[in-house]
Amino acid sequence: MSDVMTAPRAKVEEKLFQNRYLVDAGRPHIKVKAHTTPSASLLAMTTLCPAGCYTQTESGQVEVAADGCLECGTCRIVTRKTGEIEWNYPRGGFGVLYKFG
Ligand code: SF4
Hints:
Elements lengths: L2 H4 L5 H6 L2 E3 L7 E3 L7 H9 L5 E3 L5 E3 L9 H5 L6 E3 L7 E3 L4
Antiparallel strand pairs: 1-6, 2-5, 3-4
């Protein structure tokens, strides 16, 4: 058996925990536009976002808490046609700080 097969595996959650995130208080870099019913694309973000930033409220709207965002751009692409979110990179010095290794 090769070394790759026998090497211990780290879970994705454990890897993500290594990262740090600097919050830009009061200036979220992603916003969900006001809506009553989310599109299927926006609703899908509650399961697609790898950082778990999207949640659905009890009344059915979708919210985003950009703290912890990995800046992967998935939500930007998935909702591109519906235009339900505003997406920008965080200001310099804020946002995710990746830790490799
Ligand atoms: S950019 Fe990626 S990590 Fe950040 S909120 Fe969108 S899907 Fe989640």
